[in-house]
Amino acid sequence: xxxxxxxxxxxxxxxxxxLLAQGPVAAETWDISDAAVLVRSGDxxxxxxxxxxxxVEEVQRRTGLEWVIxxxxxxxxxxxxxxxxxxxxxxxxxxxxxRPEAYRLVADPKAGRIWIxxxxxxxxxxxxxxxxxxxxxxxxxxxxxxxxxxxTVPAYPIRGHQLGFRARANxxxxxxxxxxxxxxxxxxFFGLNAVENIPFExxxxxxxxxxxxxxxxxxxxxxxxxxxxxxxxxxPAVFDLGNATLRAAELDSHEAFFAACPRLDGFxxxxxxxGNNPPELVLPFLEDVAKRLETHHPEARIWLxxxxxDPRETTQVYKWIDEHAPDWLGGLVAGPxxxxxxxxxxxxxxRYRLRHYPDITHTILCQYETSWWDLAFSRTLGREAxxxxxxxxxxIHNWYAPYTDGFITYSDGVHDDINKAIWxxxxxxxxxxxxxxxxxxxxxxxxxxxxERAADGILALERNWEGPAAQNGAIDATLAWWQNLxxxxxxxxxxxxWQLCLLRAHYDAYVRHRIIAEQALEAEANACLAEAPAVxxxxxxxxxxxxxxxxxxxxxxxxxxETLCDDLFHSIGLQTSVEKYHASGAERGAVLDFVDYxxxxxxxxxxxxxxxxxxxxxxxxxxxxxxxxxxxxPGPGSFYDDVGNVAKSPHVVRGEALNTDPEMLxxxxxxxxxxxxxxxxxxxxxxxxxxxxxxxxxxGLDPEARYVFRMTxxxxxxxxxxxxxxxxxxxxxxxxxxxxxxVPPEAIKDGVLEVTWDTPLELDLNWREQSRITEAWLLRKx
Length: 782
Description:
Elements: H1 6-15, E1 29-31, E2 36-39, H2 46-63, E3 69-70, E4 79-83, E5 103-108, E6 113-118, H3 121-134, E7 136-138, E8 141-145, E9 149-152, E10 158-162, H4 177-188, E11 194-197, H5 213-227, E12 230-234, H6 244-260, E13 266-270, H7 279-296, E14 301-305, H8 311-324, E15 329-334, H9 341-347, E16 353-356, H10 375-380, H11 390-400, E17 406-409, H12 417-428, H13 434-445, H14 451-463, H15 474-488, H16 496-529, H17 532-535, H18 537-548, H19 555-572, H20 578-581, H21 602-613, H22 618-629, E18 639-642, E19 652-653, E20 671-672, E21 688-689, E22 695-698, E23 706-714, E24 718-721, E25 724-725, E26 730-731, E27 739-742, E28 753-758, E29 772-781
Parallel strand pairs: 2-3, 2-4, 4-6, 10-11, 10-17, 11-12, 12-13, 13-14, 14-15, 15-16
Antiparallel strand pairs: 1-8, 5-6, 5-9, 7-8, 18-29, 19-22, 20-21, 22-28, 23-27, 23-29, 24-25, 24-28, 26-27
Helix pairs in contact: 1-15, 2-3, 4-5, 6-7, 11-12, 12-13, 13-14, 14-15, 15-16, 16-18, 16-19, 16-22, 18-21
């Protein structure tokens, strides 16, 4: 490790990176810059031929070296022996596990050879991927560890990602065939063996599609054929399967697609999200699909998820499987809103597989939400931002993997690229070290010179989202870390993965500086409102508005974010704006459109002030301004919580951590609402809620005082204090309206109050309409 100056050392401490554990000492390497590639003579599988091409092309891409592929030994230079079987003219071949997809990677410097041997064509490809992950490279130079001997087989047979060519994706729809092939190739480096496309789900036009959708669907299939990667399709039914005319047309459409596909291995039908057909219509339809599929792809199988099925419908599916035992069924898929994975595996007959369908692409309103995410990030970065969360997703993978036969993730763009690599690598080896995986990722895509520091920078990006942004000083250290790397690595300026990391580092820092500055402006504006009785309500509001209109801080960060968004659109088609870059919707990664979303209540205050100005009575105006001014500061002896805001919820009782409750089933989390396409003018505290906290707990109360518990939210609130139900004196149910419950004196005799709720039974309501809490006050009354 090179010596560290004081600034770098300080950054390391802020980032949580140990100065004593910067990774293993670099292995001794040997120069293989003039290597030749030896392939076995005779018939080679298409995947094996592709492996050789990938090897020489990717080495040339990184180093400029032009290695030659031959089936004859070249003397006097290092030889990379590549194949899925015996190699001509070499008597001694290292032994290899006789398992599908297995490979062995052996360095023998004395003999001048590196062996990349696959049990099959796929194994050869995975061996090449591992070779590239271990290669020390620079322009004009390639070196390889001398002491390398790896024999490995994958832990799980299904390791894939959804790469749907559709308008909703925030980048895939802008790609041509070569970009798709390169991306699939790079995912294979980390163990991918399946790609899932979305050929039919919508007909929404995309202005950035370079190839007609019908044509690209088939080209992706052909790419998968070249790489021996399974080609799956995700095909919901968004119409009533009871309509015979539509049903017949759908079957004909599917068969035409089956006939045209060079390769098709899996047909995944989601029971819901989207779609709303019951099992009695779904299962016969899939049986008919299977008959058409078998004609063209006899080895392909149908897969079903029970997303959105109620208990009766779930039982109905299992019963049908038990009675019919269909050969065309590959298994079940566990996705968002599916029955629990352990219970599904227990109930599903052993002959059928279970596939995980994890959402690795979204941060909120999704399957695996970012836990206790600062509202400042959810209002700006939104649901589909660049979201490297390697530690979190490595844990999620291992939590559920033992029940499954693998996964094909839900992804809608390249913003989750690091998460894909983590899932792929853990699907191969669940014990793979997270930091080690990131170093390999960075070595392949950024280069050995920055690999370890880039890996630590990625880990730091994940930690940026822990706790309140304003109190997370490491966010600025993360930015400084990436800025230092950027200055040292100008050659990476056009690398889209590098650009993504830089965008997140700058965006996070900009958000942090804004929330600190804008929250301070709101406090100053509230001070102006305190003068209303003396200067008049209108004058006080005018003064407050002048404060709130203070220009945004850190224009340098703002400008860099805009530049990086433009760079990413041109380098990889990332659509960070609806108007400027053709994002299909505001929640589809349009982070540039929300970079300046107010992080205080400026918009709400503007609207409230307009209502107050229309009031005729000056006293009433001042009274309303006083309520607004003291909203979050109710005075000595009283308490306020913005219940779903990690920065303002000190009295919320939280449960288990993610290490034992990764889906937050026993630890209620936040719900970040997305109103008005993300441009809601509602008070910020109403845009994040809970239903319901485990409890609100207050300590150090005065047993002789009188208290009232006030809350806002939506719907009902069946409130208990120290276990006993209490009745309200005010009970308004609308968003932002108050409910009030007097605190019984006996509940605070010990100076402690615990408030809990009985969950309303609202199965007939859509989840968006169900009761919830957003704010809570414990008000001391004199």
